[in-house]
Amino acid sequence: MPISSALVTRFFQLLVKRRFAEAERELERIKQKMHKTEWNRGYSRALQGMLIARKSNNDNYTFLSKLDLNDKDALKDYRKEFRGHVKSKLHENFDRGFFSAWSDCMRVLSKLAVNDSGAKRATSEKDNAKDFEKNKSQVKIESFLMSKT
Questions:
Q1: Closest Cα partner for 30 from 50, 3, 10, 51?
Q2: Range of the domain at 51
Q3: Residue 146's pLDDT is what?
């Protein structure tokens, strides 16, 4: 049975949001639906490694921690590189499955980056509005105090 792209996409979304318990459950569902082949074993090992790497919060040596989710061009370049490894005749099926998981990850992350930057921008605009309101009220208090003296 082929791997459901909806399950894999959901796994990557949960991984990015750091919702590890749900991501682990999704990973188990993915593994249950896989046939026992070397390609699938490589694919699932890559997913497991991504989960472990993402859990280790401040590991500057992991690939995932260094990714800029808002750099769509870099994500596309990484995907292209991973796709090259998938197609390479030099790699065994395990390796092809492993690189295929990374290629899928880059595909999903490049689509998520647009949503993440929009969410960050909306959050920063809200924060700026709150800061403005705080500063505005402080100016009024300062003006009030200055007018009393």
A1: 3
A2: 5-148
A3: 55
According to DSSP H, which parts of the chain are helical?
5-16, 20-33, 38-55, 63-66, 72-87, 93-148
pLDDT of residue 70: 85
* Per-residue model confidence (pLDDT) at position 101: 94
Output the pLDDT for position 64. 79
Query: C-alpha 24: how far from its chain's center?
Result: 15
- Total count of domains within the chain: 1
Query: 82 near 102, Cβ under 8 Å?
Result: yes
Name residue, tokens 């249950």. 32
Q: For residue 114, count other CB atoms closer than 10 A to its CB.
A: 12
From CA 85, how far away is CA 96, in angstroms rounded? 7
Q: Identify the pLDDT of residue 48.
A: 95
105, 99 Cβ separation under 8 angstroms: no
Weakly modelled stretches of the chain, pLDDT under 70: 1-2, 58-59, 113-149
